[in-house]
Amino acid sequence: MSLLPVLTSWYAYPFEELYGWLDDNVGTEVAYVVAAVIGAVGILTFVGLGALANVWLERKIIGRMQVRRGPNRVGPGGLLQPVADAIKLIQKEVLQPRAADGGLFNLPPIIVFIPAMLTFAVFAWAPDMVYADLDVGVLYLLALSSITSLAIFIAGWSSNNKYALLGAMRVIAMAIAYEIPLVLSLLAPVLLVGSMNIPEIINWQREHHTWIAFILPLPMLIYAFAATAELNRTPADIAEAESEIVAGFHTEYSGMKFGLFYAVELVNALAVSGIMASLFFGGYSLFGLDRWVPPWAILIGKIYIFYFGLIWLRGTLPRLRIDQLMGFAWKMLIPMALINIAVVAIQVLLWRELELTNWVLVPYAIINLVLAVVLIRQFYRMLTAGFYRLPTRVRLVPEVSVPSLPAPGSATQP
Amino acid sequence: MDDLAVVIAFYVLAGITLLSALMVSIVRDLIHAVLFLILSFIGVAGLYITLSADFVAVAQVLIYAGAISVLMLFAILLTPRSARDNSRVSYAAPISAIAGLLGAVIIFVGLNTEWAEVDREIDGSTARAIGNALLDPYVLPFEIASVLLAIAMIGAIILVRPNDEEGDL
Questions:
Q1: Do A146 and B38 touch (CB under 8 A)?
Q2: Among residues A155, A147, A137, A120, which one has the least CA distance to residue B54?
Q3: ipTM exceeding 0.90?
Q4: Is the minimum CB–CB distance between B102 and chain A shorter than 8 Å?
Q5: What is the pLDDT of residues A224-257, one digit of tens each?
């Protein structure tokens, strides 16, 4: 059994040697700086390679879902397609409208990439492999998502283009609307674990031999959809609806600036998948498998499974209208999240104060699952009941009264 | 606060904050002013981090730079374009005199006060300490703040309600 740590963490030994040598000979500060630089380079390598791989993955998988092959010309199986995309974007002419805000126009592609990169700093890739062990890790992730919407607004505003501004306003309205269910759904695991520290949440899942998604299914679903809306992905990509507002907030951006927006969208998708994997699905732990397999490989595998789920949503669902999206957020997700928080808080209080055994999590899981099914069903019926009534208009010519269709089941009179 | 890195970080962050706060009042376009205000918010968050107040720093970014600045941007975008000129303000001279006077008074008082430096460590996380403080000694301001937020939300809903109930949209 003592061979296993060597097998799974052989890559860590040279770095530990380097840190020890620097710590003894040169100084602790220099060792810290070198460790920080190496860690940052590692994370940024993953982000960069992930952006490249995601371009290919997304186009290939969506192609397959749409019963076509996807890119297959550039390289074997289209694997060099991201490289071709990057070269194409780099060699394009950089256009800037004359009336656009000069310095402000070039800023958003940079600003929008910063939160995407910073999200990966708080992930726990292995039991002792966290870049920034923040005590407020979950809140830090929420703060970063609120900066992204600001950058998109600056992009839409500085383009001096009505369609871009319209896209930017839509994005901001949707972003601040979906931030509330995002926060509330991420509050549920924090309540359960009692800490906002992400390695601690993963440790909790390891100690209790369960995933938080089994105990709290409704926050997981709410987070999945709220994060999709925050990412501006289909079904919530009203910001870049190509058929409606040209290209939304990045209409005026050409060449690599648009490339940066596109890359940020993919990197953000990876980040959201990472958050879901860490908080709801155990992070680097897989019921003890992380002693045999390098834990960061497990985390990356989970991230790509959830990224496949996001691509699946994109390939399957049609785009929702802006009023449908806002109605969904305010009328359905927020009440469901609030009710869920109340229930989870009561459960955690009973569990902690009465010092109940850990097996009480099983009935909690069943209660939460029943609650999720009941809430989703009831809110769905409440929100769609009104659509079976024909609209009444003022008629210039009197005619016979138009009968309204009988609603399925019980019709509620609003 | 004796560490060289902390001192450098403090001066850089303070410089960013003060410079962007100055640019808020100088720059011509109102949207640019709001963007510089956002930069000063983020600078203040950085200053909170130098004081090891991690929860307050992240909450500052989340609330100020994330929500309040969006509110200000929406408010500005709903005003007509002619009212967005930040420069031609007739009372610029008296206001800048008063602001300079206020700044001088605050700096003078700040430099001449005997600050009691407390070297107390918070055991555990600051978020937990703030949470305990909000529920034990400061529970009344906490509840009053939540009632205030509920009143604000109800007021906002009443303000945007359509006037006649049976009018077609």
A1: no
A2: A137
A3: no
A4: no
A5: 999 988 888 877 776 665 545 566 677 777 788 8
